[in-house]
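the two lines:
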Amino acid sequence: MGRSVGVMFKELMSHLFKKPATVLYPLQRLDPPERFRGRLIWDDTECIRCSMCVRDCPCDVLELVERDDGSVDDKGKPVRDLVAIMKRCIFCGQCSWVCPKDALRFERVFELAQADKNGLKMYVENPQTYEPPPVAEAAEPAPEADQAPQSEGQDQTEQ
Amino acid sequence: MDTVMPLFYVLIFPGFVFLVGAGFLAEFFDRKVYARLQSRQGPPWYQPFADIVKLLAKEDIVTDGADRGIVNIVPLFGLTAVAASFLYVPLWTAQWPFSFTGDLIVIVYLLTIPAFVLVLMGWYSPNPFGALGTGRVITQLFGYEVPFTLALLTPALVAQSWRVTDLLAYQTTHFWFVATTPIAFFVAVVALVGKLERIPFDIPHAETEIVGGPMVEYTGRKLALLRMMFQTETVVGAALIAVIFLGGPYCPWLGGMLTGITASIVGFFIVMLKTLLIVFVLSVIKALFARLRIEQMVHWCLLYLAIPILVQILIVIIIAAT
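prediction for all of em together
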């Protein structure tokens, strides 16, 4: 024991006078690795709506949703937009890897925390030409489904 | 004036406000040194203060089944006991206004109260982790308390006095007690680690194991008071060892050079430096070891603290008799 404590003591004291391995984070930032998967970006002009990403996503993050205004393309088909529920995303990169047009990619931005889950959204390449539909309304039928049985249960107890 | 000055002493300097400030400084220094030993940056200087402010702003919750009176009073009681003990530690002179015969015993007694505060907290908590922590606090108390008291008794035996200022005066004419009774110094520092429940003796609150032990149900203001209790106890314990074993405000190469108020100010800073030196040693111990199990701790304390300190006392008695 004494020997191991001696080795450890020497190691600790050497660190005391070295430059620390960490940085003062908010003031000083390190560059993330080259292929870091941070913020998800969708290029809607490149996207051909093949829905490969939707099928490949292991966490059901992505969905192709028709526009509310019922707009159609030049072939008469409704225009669909990619919507992402980013709170489910595990940043595995499958969607980006499978995309034939490289319309989905990950930026090296890692500060994605939000106070509101509506803020957890996929970013779009050309925000000037396109405004994505709100995520919460488009992709969350679950709370309504949960509430329905509860209200029935209350009715039964009242009866 | 006669009523204002004692109040100033007790509440502001060197009393409560100064002690809390010194507690923040000691915790910052401890965390910074600990971080640098682990090659981290460590917190900014105001972090301990910011932590306390955050806790004070949080909702004050008392769990169902806990004894509300005990839960409310006990953290304040512990902090008060530690603050009271600090008044008897002479910080810059041997003519300390609060000194009286037997103040060493009073300091040791008051420094035992935080352990009983933890016992009461855990005992009146409905949480099983609290009860488990309480058992460990008491078991650990038997490990460190006797060696700690005996370690402080040894210089008192040498100087033939129970008064801290007498121990201080003795060190001006003789060697410091760290040189004459080194085993007692070692035992006092290690027992202080146990008293402050720091690694490797953080068994009673062991966050990764019993999630805080007696403190498991505490939050908000009460947790802030408890944290301040530990911070201030660190300062009092370290300052006490600095005064008793490291010559307090005296410095051999400054002896007799300074007089009056200058001597007091310099002496005060010397005591603070020596206190920080003890805190530094505590930080190194914290970084050097991992947590022991409770039975290992008691075994270790009886073997390596109790027996050496008895040998030290025996040596002192034999030398005094010859």
